[in-house]
Specification:
300 residues; 4-stranded antiparallel β-sheet; 2 domains; globular; alpha+beta; 11 strands; Helicase, Ruva Protein, domain 3; N-terminal domain of MutM-like DNA repair proteins
Length: 300
Amino acid sequence: MPEGHTLHRLADGIRERFAGRAVRVSSPQGRFADAAALLDGTRLLDAQAWGKQLFIEFEGGRFVQVHLGLIGSFDLFDGPPPPPRGQVRLRISTDSITGDGRASYGDLRGATICSLLTADQRRAVVDRLGPDPLRADADWTSAWVRIARSRKPIGALLMDQAVLAGVGNVYRAELLFRHRMHPHRPGNTLRRGQFEAMWDDLVALMREGVRTGRIDTVRHDHTPEAMGRDPRVDDHGGEVYVYRRTGQPCLVCGAKVRTEVLEGRNLFWCPRCQPRFRSRAGASRRPVGRAAPIGREGVT
């Protein structure tokens, strides 16, 4: 499933091609035909992402909400639109309406959600979401309040879109590794400073993801060039510490990366770099959370 940086890149691409222009809107597949007819010929005003939700604003106070889900894609192209191929739920395009000679189009396929909303309905969706690390108006303390009150594992809380919007399985696994935190550590055992450091790190990682279009989380010392190893080969791309590296040696300590399922999604972690949390009362040694984070010096 695309993570938050992908939706922000998509919103940027839609704004660059269509914002301020009258557009053609259609539903070749037919499932969005009635709504498309209302939007056809109107101006597209803006596109904004909030976590994994995309909102495309049209004049008249109308918004198209898109959630790509597991298999959805929204592909953008420059040039005149060809006849649609496959199951295109939504097509946005420019043609002779604008008279400026610029032609672009975008095709949405396989989305979990493609709905036409009013401004109030959009606001109701956003109100159910946690802060998005990629938004300038994000307030990390609202996520902290929910985490500090919860006994659920931090590995589950980070994936809860009502707690944090936009974090998916890759960022969840990598963020926990970089902060030496076991995914089963209860949320209410974290200290405020620990979570603030995680938030700042997440903002930096996700901004880099928007810039490059891929998720890279390893510090410079652990890149293929620095370690003399082969680059990672994976359809998700990017250099990572633990995500989808089950059974492979940890890039930091050499222990085998482990995996298990938590709330229907695979966890990945290093048992040596991310040992189980022990409370002050139940352990003679200091909590794992005091260990120096991995990779805080910056991303690749």
